[in-house]
Amino acid sequence: MSMTLAKLYRYPVKSLSASPLATATLRAGEGLPEDRRFAIMHGASAFNPLEPLWQPKSNFVVLSRTDKLAALETEFDDATSTLIIRRGGRQVARGQIGTPLGRGLIDQFLAAYLKGAVPGTPRLVEASGVAFSDKQERLVSIVNAASVADLERVVKEAVNPLRFRPNLVIDGAAPWEEAGWIGLSLEIGEVRLEITEVITRCAAINVEPGTGSQSLNLLLAMERGYGHRLCGVYARVVTGGTVSAGDGVVVRGR
User: Fold this and answer.
1) Exposure of 153 by Cβ count < 10 A (0-12 exposed, 13-18 middle, 19+ buried)?
2) pLDDT tens readout for residues 47-101
3) Is the pTM of this model over 0.90?
4) What is residue 141's three-state secondary structure?
5) Whether 71 contacts 212, CB under 8 Å
6) What is the sign, positive or negative, of the torsion defined by CA atoms of 235, 79, 125, 53?
């Protein structure tokens, strides 16, 4: 069965909701445009906005420790850097977060919404040339839809692939086949991606997107069902270009 690129996502603000894309232009050595451009810094963070360097995720508000973030729906406009936050379909905050004033408006909402849930006062931060991803290198995360479907078989419940916060979702591969792609390349049209490592999952996958519910313990289910908590792979963009949902995907080098 041939493989295809089923879906594309980016996450303009680390740990807030996904933004689906129909197409994206990738550049060598970069992630998806605007992916994890912003993050929410908590009061105990070592991140210094005046000297912005990549920092581990422990310095930021993340889903694994703050599941109520998953109940927020967000929309981000590239042209104006405007973030809209909704809860239950109702707009609760809006700000042009590429500017200090706009970030301040979002900060006011976050301070009230996360009061008592995080250390100190949360603040939205941005760092030029830095993506607030879990890896210091700018990578793309890829999830195999068949692996998620096999996990559904194990837990006997529907599993939203967005629990794994993928950039790219691949259809047509065998379940867990992606674990054997390390060191190989994926070609999507003119784009070439080098697969660097399998992704080890944390408790964030227990959080249901859209609700924040943790009624399904996927981390435990993976450890019991497979003896590991690996799902998806990281990839480095070697040759850039434009990719779109529905594009064919070819594995090279095996």
Assistant:
1) exposed
2) 998 888 899 999 999 999 999 999 999 999 999 999 999 999 999 999 999 999 9
3) yes
4) strand
5) yes
6) positive
Mean of the per-residue pLDDT values for the chain? 96
Per-residue pLDDT tens for 125-134? 998 788 999 9
| Strand bridging mode 191-200 / 230-239 | antiparallel
Q: 206-237: per-residue pLDDT in tens?
A: 999 999 999 999 999 999 999 999 999 999 99
Longest dimension (CA), the chain: 52
For residue 105, give Cα distances in angstroms to 44, 85, 111, 154, 187.
Answer: 21, 11, 10, 43, 42
The single residue listed with the structure tokens 């992916």 is 35
According to DSSP H, which parts of the chain are helical?
100-113, 145-155, 218-226
- Domains contained in the chain, CATH given: 3-30+136-252 (2.40.33.20), 38-126 (no CATH)
CA distances from 227 to 91, 108, 150, 155, 233 (A): 42, 43, 14, 14, 18
Instruction: Look at phi and psi of residue 163 and say left if phi exceeds 0, alpha if psi is from -120 to 50, else beta.
Output: alpha
The band of 1, judged by pLDDT with boundaries at 50, 70 and 90, is low
Nearest to 220 by CA among 172, 139, 124, 154: 154
State the amino acid at position 238 in one-letter form.
V
> How far apart (Å, rounded) are the C-alpha atoms in residues 189 and 84?
33
Asked if 242 and 21 count as a contact pair (C-beta separation under 8 A), the reply is no
